[in-house]
Amino acid sequence: AQSVTQLDSQVPVFEEAPVELRCNYSSSVSVYLFWYVQYPNQGLQLLLKYLSGSTLVESINGFEAEFNKSQTSFHLRKPSVHISDTAEYFCAVSETGGYNKLIFGAGTRLAVHP
Amino acid sequence: GAGVSQSPSNKVTEKGKDVELRCDPISGHTALYWYRQSLGQGLEFLIYFQGNSAPDKSGLPSDRFSAERTGGSVSTLTIQRTQQEDSAVYLCATDRGGYTNTQYFGPGTRLTVL
Q1: Contact A107/B43, CB-based, under 8 Å?
Q2: A104 touches B at CB < 8 Å
Q3: Facing residue for B102 by CB, picked from A42, A46, A103
Q4: Which residue among A7, A22, A84, B33 sits deepest, i.e. has the most Cβ atoms within 10 Å of its Cβ?
Q5: Burial B90-107 (b: 16+ CB within 10 A, else e)
Q6: Torsion angle, alpha carbons of B43, B103, A81, A63, to 10
Q7: Is B86 helix (H, G, I), strand (E, B) or coil?
């Protein structure tokens, strides 16, 4: 079985500051890793994913996450946030070799202030 | 359609009544998932359909919950004898199957049980 821990339920940050949203997972098998974002009053959207290869993955809007197998982590970072990044961010895993059933963390609410 | 659609968007019902929630997947997506998003439990997997294979029902919280998928397309999630703890947002997601690993989520149905 897998589990995902997002250590911060809320992260307040000022515009243009850097941010890191933490995610740790536990699994007895290999997993794929995902970050999903939910903007206010919108559905869940895939932000980025790690399947294999380079452990650093990037999104089109400047976020990046690094898979660290030894730390079982997949932290999400952005060097300079915008007001429009205000949203809830969910880290998730799915088992490799299985179907894509997602196990989600509890979510981190990122609030960007001017 | 362009995306996953769900209906109704909101449903208010009285305790003890049955409800049906509908999901229309993206055309050509063979895999379909139901998740539940609630304040107390976060995002939980409920059930998975892939083509004509037997569904994975391992996430259904009780035998009051059931789902079907007709013709490999539209899916309905039925909750019988609703309870207040069933109040949540029910999310449907689909993907192309295989190991594409990108699930597309619908906007959800917000269920309120009075």
Answers
A1: yes
A2: yes
A3: A46
A4: B33
A5: bbbbbbeeeeebebbbbb
A6: 120
A7: helix
